[in-house]
Design a protein that fits this description.
This protein is an alpha/beta fold. Helices cover 47% and strands 14% of the residues. The chain has one domain.
Length: 298
């Protein structure tokens, strides 16, 4: 890797770049090893083979908002795996995950086919932000009964890999592990790549691919276009969220004010009723309807 220090490395957390590194046919072995490290850490059996269902092609243009930049694969047993990189927080990640998982699960069947044909679907979300309220960088979810832990079905499996939670982790002293892969994705200093590659030889191919793309003019242009789109999208979402929070606070104040004014009107109406005034007069004075005033007499 003599050229590593001669070029500025692109960020592998960019979803366009991530798919080029992990989602191309020539790097299918890289994806397989990454998946195995993920499953091994979760106590799952290793995979022997995967088939890419949407391998990277030139049609995955970063300027196209509709480009599908996740990675979809099928195991030799027929299980479906979806891997997605999220550079920025789009919020509602829980609902978004369930929505796309359900589409993948239901999409296995054509009309009239038996439910028995449905196979397990695994979602792996790699997040460049903290999402879950714990310090674990790798969390796995299944459907289980609350009190006994009895599994309802093994068909749903959700992995969340949160890169910021690796801040306290150093490069492992030796041996293959998921941490090696996540530290590479997190943007470890290229001077540390040699140690990571020694721990995990398959990482060398991912690093070589990243180095090649970092030197390729067209790849850099596509990367920069995607980065701009991602930044603009994140700014728009954050701006809309802040505006929504401001609007919510303003509406809350108005509702509080309106509620206070109504209580005042009710108190006035009660006092006037005690004075024996006519309902029509009380309604005009308090701003309540005649029916509301009559209800106070009950």
């Amino acid at each position: 890797m003599e050229l590593i220090l001669l070029v500025e490395m692109l960020d592998p957390r960019n979803d366009f770049l991530f798919k080029r590194i992990f989602g191309s046919e020539e790097n299918r072995d890289v994806l397989l090893t990454f998946l195995n490290r993920t499953f091994e850490e979760a106590g799952k059996p290793s995979l022997t083979e995967i088939i890419l269902l949407n391998p990277y092609t030139d049609k995955d243009a970063p300027r196209d908002k509709q480009s599908i930049l996740d990675i979809r694969a099928r195991t030799s047993e027929g299980q479906l795996i979806n891997v997605e990189m999220q550079l920025f927080n789009k919020y509602d990640m829980d609902k978004r995950t369930l929505f796309y998982w359900s589409k993948q699960y239901a999409g296995q069947l054509y009309e009239g086919q038996s439910y028995k044909l449905l196979r397990k679907c695994v979602t792996i979300n790699i997040l460049n932000y903290s999402f879950l309220p714990n310090s674990r960088y790798h969390n796995v979810f299944h459907l289980t009964e609350d009190r006994t832990g009895i599994p309802f079905s093994d068909d749903m499996e959700l992995h969340f890999l949160e890169l910021p939670k690796l801040d306290e982790y150093e490069i492992p002293a030796g041996g293959s592990s998921l941490v090696n892969w996540l530290l590479f994705l997190k943007g470890s200093n290229p001077s540390q790549w040699e140690v990571l590659a020694m721990n995990e030889p398959s990482l060398k191919k991912a690093m070589t691919t990243l180095e090649f793309l970092s030197q390729d003019k067209e790849a850099r242009l596509q990367y920069e276009a995607r980065q701009k789109y991602l930044h603009d999208e994140a700014s728009m979402i954050e701006g809309a969220r802040e505006e929504g929070l401001k609007l919510g606070k303003a509406e809350g104040k108005l509702e509080g004010k309106a509620e206070g004014e109504r209580e005042k009107a009710l108190e006035i109406a009660r006092n006037m009723l005690n004075m024996g005034l006519e309902i029509e007069v009380i309604a005009k004075a308090s701003g309540l309807t005649e029916s509301e005033v009559r209800a106070l007499k009950v």
